[in-house]
Amino acid sequence: MYPEKVREHGTRARYTSDPMEKNFARILVADDELNQRSALASLIRRWGYEVETAQDGADALAKLREFDADVVVTDLNMPELDGRGLLEELQKFPVPPQTVVLTAFGNLETALETVHRLGAFWYLEKPVQTPALQLVLERAMEKQRLAGHAVRLERELASRGVLGDLIGESAAMQEIFYLLQQVAPTKATVLITGESGTGKEMVARALHQLSPRRTGPFFAINCAAMPEALIESELFGHEKGAFTGAVERRAGCFELSRGGTLLLDEIGDMPMGTQAKLLRVLEDRKVRRLGSPREVELDVRVLASTNKTLRDSITAGTFREDLFFRLNVFEVQLPPLRERKEDIPRLADELIADLNRKHLCRVTDMTPEVAGLLQRYDWPGNVRELRNVMERAVILAGEGTITARLLPRGFAGRPEPPVREHGSTVALTLEPGMTVDEAERALIEMTLRHTGNNRTRAAEILGISPKTLFNKLREYGGGGE
Questions:
Q1: Is 361:398 a contact under the CB 8 Å cutoff?
Q2: How far is C-alpha 417 from the geometric centre of its chain's CA atoms?
Q3: Are residues 316 and 346 in the same domain?
Q4: Do 213 and 322 have their domain in common?
Q5: Is this model's pTM higher than 0.85 or not?
Q6: For 218-236, what is each residue's pLDDT tens digit?
Q7: Is the predicted pLDDT of residue 162 greater than 60, yes or no?
Q8: How distant, in Å, are the alpha carbons of 19, 137, 328, 451 from that of 426?
């Protein structure tokens, strides 16, 4: 295993190369009552764990800078920083320790808040039952081992060119992976920029999955696809009767994203009036539904993406400068595909596998000629265009190997077979090196185009039965339907 380093908020690295090492059995006990704290620590030590103690939440955070705890057992009611405050601070860690909360003031409402909103692993009432605590600690330790293993796998995959749904071994993409791993665990607003089709939403989803909010919701809203009145309702929500057509109360994306992540896609096309309201929401961390006098507190991580140069939009008067600085806390600029062509073979292979699943095809690979054509092309539509080209080729191939003939005509300078039309007759000049099957397929496809996809007429021209034509098309992956 290779050595790992994890960036944390005030604590040292949590992971080692061996998940069975001693530091995967460390527990921190936080309680303001000395006798309770000491008795609990002594009991847990007898079970074989290494234990450190803290007198309140603030002391616990200080101890965690040196003591790399996997589980924190904390009282809920403490001076200075209480259990709730401690849990909120722990959630800022890239991979927070599991937490078990103890309290003498137990009720169902408190338990639900502690476990679900504050992210505790479990909740126990005082006086603690020894067997219950021992079992909970074992389960919490196992969950922490799995969390550590997942992080190690993510980092190992990133070093091999995969991060979430993102793929790339080029220096440009490795730099992107590094930036995402650094900023994902934080609360910072991220502005994702790049040309259309570079994968900005995939980056946003990777940020969400790598963050402590990964178990929360992820919402994406396209700011360019809606008029101003509708986008405000989608973002902020509305009350019944707030405007014509508002027949019921509705929560907006900000409320629906609480505890998770909201992506404002194509932020550069957001109307100016909405930009002003968005700025206030980002500054106050509160949202007010249209037609409501009440504000709702927010706990949402905001990401924004655009294919525009926002500084140019500011100069043109179509984007607010103050909103730009609020959003541009941390920028991730995606490179166009033409600047990382070394990633194309790997991307194409992954797309073939994905498209096989989607279309129930059995394509295995592509010829060296196809690989060369893909790398020579400049891809103005970036990864999205590459996916479209590969999808067409996979559908046409159906199974086996993708050949150059299955790429769009004229693609990357590939010569087009010259076609001459004589009345109702189509003559096809074949290229040297084509197989008989390829020549037959080219003739069938060209005849279908000539007949406007009238298969009965095409079969007559080709001198074959409609059933034979149907079977040929099915062999080519066209479905025959």
A1: yes
A2: 42
A3: no
A4: yes
A5: no
A6: 999 999 878 877 888 888 8
A7: no
A8: 68, 77, 58, 10
